[in-house]
Amino acid sequence: MNEQSSLPPVPLADSIDRAIQRVGLSIAWAYVLLVLVIMTQVILRKGFASGLIVLEELQWHLYAVGVMFGLSYAQTTNSHIRVDLFYSSFRAKTKYIIEILGILILVLPFISVIFIHSLDFVADSWRINEHSESPSGLPWRWLVKSVIPLSMLMLGLAVLSRLYRDTVLLFKGNA
User: pLDDT tens digits, residue range 99-122?
Assistant: First the structure.
């Protein structure tokens, strides 16, 4: 059981988290497709001595989509990696304060910078109809680049949900 599920209920945050988790679980199917693409590429390379560039590019596109949207899923389930030397021994109130400060000082500014800078990056890609430089590569590279701002919006929503949850719990008195 992760820490998130052991927290007292906060209805608004719970609803947001569930919606993000549904999206995350849907996008997780990209990993099933990724495994199939990798297996196909390995069979083509090792069995027939000819891989396909389109499959190689599809691999990193699928991986990118899974990782980028997986960030918000990990945030809502509190399954992301954290260095926990002292945190587990803190009182609940201290944990809420640390989470709130971490979100406000570190996470939200990071997400904002990535989101803002990704907009021009994606707009330029759309403008030039960016595609693979390889003649047999994938078209529409702008599509996978569009994942960056979309996933940052979703991660921002997940982080704001956590900020709301921790703030409510901090002042609720259950700490």
Answer: 999 999 999 999 999 999 999 999
pTM of the model: 0.87
Cβ proximity of 139 and 130 under 8 Å? no
Contacts of 135 (CB under 8 A, 6+ apart): none
Task: Give dist(CA 142, CA 123) in Å, integer.
Answer: 8
d(CA 66, CA 72): 11
Q: What is the pLDDT of residues 150-174, one digit of tens each?
A: 999 999 999 999 999 999 999 986 5
SS (H, E, C) the chain: CCCHHHCCCCHHHHHHHHHHHHHHHHHCHHHHHHHHHHHHHHHHHHHHCCCCHHHHHHHHHHHHHHHHHHHHHHHHHCCCCCCCCCHHHCCHHHHHHHHHHHHHHHHHHHHHHHHHHHHHHHHHHHHCCCCCCCCCCCCCHHHHHCHHHHHHHHHHHHHHHHHHHHHHHHHHCCC
Distances (CA, A) of 83 to 5, 31, 124: 20, 27, 37
